[in-house]
Amino acid sequence: KDAHASDSDENLERGNWSSKGDYLLSMVGYAVGLGNVWRFPYLTYQNGGGAFLIPYTLMLALAGLPLFFMECSLGQFASLGPISVWRILPLFQGVGITMVIISTFVAIYYNVIIAYALYYLFASFQRVLPWSDCFSWADEFCSKTRLVSDCNATLDGEIIHANYSFITSNNLTCINGTMNYKTVQFPSEQYWNKVALQRSSGLDETGNIVWYLALCLLLSWMIVGAALFKGIKSSGKVVYFTALFPYVILLILLVRGATLEGALDGIEYYIGRQSNITKLMEAEVWKDAATQIFYSLSVAWGGLVALSSYNKFHNNCYSDAILVCVTNCVTSVFAGFAIFSILGHMAFVSERPVSEVVDSGFDLAFVAYPEALSRLPVSPLWSFLFFFMLLLLGLDSQFATIETLTTTIQDIYPKVMKKLRIPITLGVCILLFFLGLICVTQAGIYWVNLIDHFCAGWGILIAAVLEIIGIIYIYGGNRFIEDIEMMIGKKSRLFWLWWRMCWFFITPVLLMAILVWSLVTFSPPTYGSVLYPAWGTAVGWCMIIFCVIWIPIAAILKIVKAEGNLCQRIVSCCRPAANWGPYLECNRGERYSHVVDSKKEKEHEIPTLDCRYGCGRE
């Protein structure tokens, strides 16, 4: 016991979650993000309304949950982050590197979106919202209502067609159904482009750094750094507020929206009588459901492995996976009611069909919904609540993403991380802040969209496909199930029947189908009607190549360092490393009793601690 006192202190410094609640809320916060609010409701409306919940639920069971459970189990079993955990299959260590690099790219632009939310949050502290009307920054195309361009009217017993100015000057009345409307923009749309972003004409025109967005970006990184200065010990407490309070705000917005005129029309478009069951015959609907589930649960980003690596060894990761996945999906459905009830009211007061005011992504979060909120009594209050909710949803996901990076550093340099955790965490935040400054220039939104289009797409799909192939087909699915049973206890063959079906066949096939579909239907990136220059698309391809090139590079390096002929080297790299297994000796049992001997203990830095010192990373 005394001989291992220093090892014990070091591992206690790495620590476990202080409580089960810290872990679950961190996982919920990581999985539940901006996409649950600004993408899922639109996809539901677009793909048949309530009927879309059928493929969505099936894809959760067939693709999302199996991958989620796999990654949680993997991280918890080895108590290692997304790179070091590939001791399970050294040939595929590049998959972990790809995950970490993609998470780095995403962390850069995701905090820019948080900066947008901060800017709008501060802009809400005004008696009159600055996007509530066409003020000095607006042009002639700005209007809160539809403007008639021309129509048919009756003049001296004859039907004529004339512009609207002629109609009004002669006190004529347009015939119903003959009116053509001018192309106009809501004040919120012009405010977003002209004031908030100061958007340039395209990626070619970088322009200046928008100073107030840069300050908001700095503030967002300061918040992230402050929450993570003690790692999971501090972030695990912060999420009690950042993960739970968005539900309070969603409930408030839903109750307020339900009391407005036109709310029922919006909800019917979302999931009511407008549902179209025939949409299920279209392959695009099933692809959208699978893609939304895949990205919504944050699988294959490395974050699930990193967060689960701090669990105690015998934690029930099976029930955790089901709870988090179900919570994530229920949140998406719930958020849709809050969004569409208020958009329905906006359509009512602007005398437009709901289909003309509904949008997704940036246009929903920073144009359509703010426009709807500006039409409510006490609009600054509702605007503040909405953007505060976006801020909290974004921060939760960002905490986990940065924790993925620091966990990776901790696995590679444990002693350095123990002594310099705060400087390293702050250094990561500062570096990513400077890398993100390109995204707060006048062309910043084009860069955000470009990174999202390439890095957050194929790279993750490729990593997920290789991850499940490597663990199930090379390491061995039955072997992996035995590892899980070491943590959660022996289960019946019937219990594992569903998971075997998914892991061995259904999930890999679905992932491959999504990947192939994405490649076949690839289209160059655009932002609205703005096309990207050829060099911009080339930069996007370079980013995704930089992310995935480490998969073959790491494999080649492992083969070169191995011993024997080429075939023997490949075979040895397809076997678990000598130091693969549970982190603590007391958890290894007979199956992994061979993992460490006295010579390898120091080399691999795996402590032989008594269980009285804790389990998992403790």
UniProtKB/TrEMBL annotation:
Chain ranges passing through the membrane: 21-38, 50-70, 91-122, 209-229, 238-255, 289-310, 322-348, 381-402, 422-445, 457-476, 497-518, 538-560
Pfam families recorded: SNF (PF00209)
Annotated binding of Na(+), by residue: G29, A31, V32, N36, S296, N328, L393, D396, S397
Cystine crosslinks: C134-C142
CDD domains assigned to the protein according to its UniProt record, in alphabetical order: SLC6sbd_ATB0
Broad class of the protein's primary localization: membrane
Membrane association type: Multi-pass membrane protein
A GO molecular function held by the record: alanine transmembrane transporter activity
GO CC annotation, single: plasma membrane
Localization annotation: Membrane
Alphabetical UniProt keywords: Disulfide bond, Membrane, Metal-binding, Sodium, Symport, Transmembrane, Transmembrane helix, Transport
GO terms classed as biological process: amino acid import across plasma membrane
Domain of life the protein comes from: Eukaryota
Family the entry assigns: Belongs to the sodium:neurotransmitter symporter (SNF) (TC 2.A.22) family.
UniProt protein name: Transporter
